[in-house]
């Protein structure tokens, strides 16, 4: 699908460098992440794709001794600015992690959590929001009769959809998926992929994946990274069919990875 | 074939070690129960001592020990948990914290009689709490604090990083994450520290010797500032003072049995709570 309409850049990454101590993990990244599109980040292990995605909601702040240079502009503001309100940023940029990480609480409490920490006390509103989020995450039918069961009793795939529902409940604008299917079976993976297809109508999505087929199935744009460099970025269709860079071609054809 | 024999001998050796441990545990229980049981009666549990402690019961000592345990937990649990939270979550890594940690560990090695003297100087005299349940509880709190802190620290660091990440990624602040995710998840582990602390606080004699315990009172403690009788000290007094050692010894074993049962009961409540906390969300 080659879209001819001009896409709106939701996030603009400009001259981004990132260091773990003295080791440089990202080198001079420049790319746009478009509004209500799925952008996939692919590349072999250690290429910096997880490092990059974790900068978009400043989760890298949790890793000591790191340093970022350059700018990541979200709605006109540089989110790498130390003065920015990180808590507010993370409400706007949600994240789903590699391993499902539901809280050891009930299904209901897991989703209500994000609302409660935002100071929401209206019980009806919370209940409606829990239902709405579970429906959006395609988990409602399986979970509606067991909202007060522990979330840990759900299967891995269900837990990951619960994590997505939990993320949706705080109404983010951007959702980051960090290898969301890495620990899931093929059927659960298919469900998550379908869900991502649904969610892009309302959300801007960035997904890190090890799986090239997954990137080609779910994404509109793909960025291929290698050893901290952004080697190639373009529409998924172009990147997969006529890669410009030799490295990209070699990676896609399985010559390394 | 040779390896199998070595393995068998190894297992046998380990089994023997367990058997020896269990043997001592069983003997102690048997010893205390068999000697203490004859002393027990309804009167023994509900009345104050009479006839210079050769007759009557030990109710004031039971009540006193119970109050001391509760008071100790009341101070030590919040203080220990808060200290552990600071050390695990907020303190800057490095030299300063290693010194704090080392000090806490050293505190655990201080002999209990030293705590008693400290309690006498600070709580009884300087703060003016007098010889009282309050002074005794505070002294015992400091005694069990290192245990509660290290158990809490272990429990807090065992909370998976992925849960903190999940909370922070939803826009929770650090404190919200600690309060709503980290502490509830760590709480069963914290209770383990409390359980061990209870046993220690209930049984220690030296720290309450100068700070809380009195040899004899007919009255039940009326406020935290009352002095009280306590089972361990009562046992000590019965076995070292008084003019009827034979009759007193029987009562002392009765006290020992009650003390054991009391510790089991209070620990039992803590164990039950821990189980509830664990079960609530894993099944």
What would you note in describing this structure?
The complex is a heterodimer of chains A (257) and B (283). By secondary structure, chain A is of the alpha/beta class. Chain A has a domain at 9-103 and 176-252: Rossmann fold (3-Layer(aba) Sandwich). Chain A has helices at residues 49-55, 86-92, 107-117, 123-136, 140-143, 156-169, 186-199, 212-218, 236-241, 246-252, and strands spanning 9-20, 23-34, 38-42, 66-74, 77-78, 93-96, 174-178, 204-208, 221-226, 229-235. Chain A has a six-stranded mixed β-sheet, sandwiched between helices. In chain A, helix 6 runs parallel beside helix 7 (186-199). The longest helix of chain A is centred in the middle third of the chain and has 14 residues, at 123-136. The radius of gyration of chain A is 18 Å and the shape is globular. The two termini of chain A are 26 Å apart. By secondary structure, chain B is mostly helical. Chain B folds into two domains: 2-37; 40-282, Orthogonal Bundle (MetI-like fold), CATH 1.10.3720. Chain B is built from eleven helices and two strands; from the N terminus they run H-H-E-E-H-H-H-H-H-H-H-H-H. Chain B has helices at residues 2-36, 42-46, 59-90, 95-109, 112-126, 133-157, 161-169, 174-203, 206-209, 231-240, 245-282, and strands at 49-50, 55-56. Chain B has a two-stranded antiparallel sheet. In chain B, a hairpin with a 4-residue loop joins strand 1 (49-50) and strand 2 (55-56). The longest helix of chain B has 38 residues, at 245-282. Chain B is globular. The model of chain B has no long low-confidence stretch (mean pLDDT 89). At the A-B interface, helix 2, helix 3 and helix 6 of A face helix 7, helix 8 and helix 11 of B.
Topology at a glance:
The complex is a heterodimer of chains A (257) and B (283).
Chain A: E1 9-20, E2 23-34, E3 38-42, H1 49-55, E4 66-74, E5 77-78, H2 86-92, E6 93-96, H3 107-117, H4 123-136, H5 140-143, H6 156-169, E7 174-178, H7 186-199, E8 204-208, H8 212-218, E9 221-226, E10 229-235, H9 236-241, H10 246-252
Parallel strand pairs in A: 3-8, 3-9, 6-7, 7-8
Antiparallel strand pairs in A: 1-2, 1-4, 4-5, 9-10
Helix pairs in contact in A: 3-4, 3-6, 4-6, 6-7
Chain B: H1 2-36, H2 42-46, E1 49-50, E2 55-56, H3 59-90, H4 95-109, H5 112-126, H6 133-157, H7 161-169, H8 174-203, H9 206-209, H10 231-240, H11 245-282
Antiparallel strand pairs in B: 1-2
């Amino acid at each position: 699908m080659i879209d001819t309409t001009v896409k709106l850049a939701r996030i603009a990454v400009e001259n981004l460098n990132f260091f773990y101590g003295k080791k440089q993990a990202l080198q001079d990244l420049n790319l746009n992440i478009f509004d209500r599109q799925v952008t996939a980040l692919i590349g072999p292990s250690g290429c910096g794709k997880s490092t990059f995605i974790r900068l978009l909601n400043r989760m890298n702040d949790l890793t000591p001794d790191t340093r970022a240079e350059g700018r990541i502009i979200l709605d006109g503001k540089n989110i790498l600015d130390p003065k920015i309100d990180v808590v507010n940023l993370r409400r706007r940029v949600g994240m789903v992690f590699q391993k499902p990480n539901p809280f050891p609480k009930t299904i209901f409490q897991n989703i209500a959590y994000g609302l409660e920490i935002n100071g929401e006390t209206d019980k009806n509103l919370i209940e409606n929001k829990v239902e709405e989020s579970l429906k959006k995450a395609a988990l409602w039918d399986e979970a509606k009769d067991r909202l007060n069961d522990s979330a840990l009793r759900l299967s891995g795939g269900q837990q990951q959809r619960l994590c997505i529902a939990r993320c949706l409940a705080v109404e983010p604008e951007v959702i980051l998926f960090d290898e969301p299917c890495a620990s899931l079976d093929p059927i659960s993976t298919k469900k998550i992929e379908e869900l991502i297809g649904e969610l892009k109508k309302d959300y801007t999505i960035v997904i890190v994946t090890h799986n090239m087929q997954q990137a080609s199935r779910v994404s509109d744009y793909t960025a291929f990274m290698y050893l901290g460099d952004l080697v190639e970025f373009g529409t998924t269709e172009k990147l997969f069919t006529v890669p410009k860079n030799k490295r990209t071609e070699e990676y896609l054809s399985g010559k390394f990875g | 074939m040779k390896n199998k024999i070595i393995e068998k001998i190894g297992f046998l050796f380990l089994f023997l070690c367990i058997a020896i441990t269990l043997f001592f545990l069983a003997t102690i229980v048997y010893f205390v129960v068999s000697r203490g049981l004859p002393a027990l009666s309804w009167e023994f549990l509900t009345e104050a001592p009479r006839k210079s402690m050769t007759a009557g019961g030990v109710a004031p000592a039971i009540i006193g020990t119970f109050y001391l345990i509760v008071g100790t937990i009341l101070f030590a649990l919040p203080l220990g948990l808060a200290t552990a939270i600071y050390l695990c979550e907020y303190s800057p890594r490095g030299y300063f914290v290693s010194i704090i940690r080392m000090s806490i560990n050293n505190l655990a090695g201080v002999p209990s009689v030293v705590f008693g003297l400290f309690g006498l100087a600070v709580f009884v005299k300087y703060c003016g709490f007098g010889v009282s349940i309050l002074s005794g509880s505070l002294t015992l709190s400091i005694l069990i604090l290192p245990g509660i802190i290290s158990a809490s620290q272990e429990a807090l660091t065992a909370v998976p990083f992925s849960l903190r990440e999940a909370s922070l990624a939803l826009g929770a602040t650090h404190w919200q994450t600690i309060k709503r995710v980290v502490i509830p998840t760590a709480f069963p582990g914290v209770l383990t520290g409390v359980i061990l602390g209870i046993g220690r606080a209930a049984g220690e004699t030296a720290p309450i010797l100068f700070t809380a315990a009195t040899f004899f009172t007919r009255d039940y403690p009326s406020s935290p500032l009352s002095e009280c009788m306590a089972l361990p000290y009562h046992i000590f007094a019965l076995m070292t003072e008084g003019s009827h050692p034979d009759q007193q010894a029987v009562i002392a074993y009765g006290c020992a049995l009650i003390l054991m049962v009391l510790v089991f009961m209070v620990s039992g409540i803590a164990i039950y709570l821990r189980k509830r906390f664990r079960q609530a969300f894993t099944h």
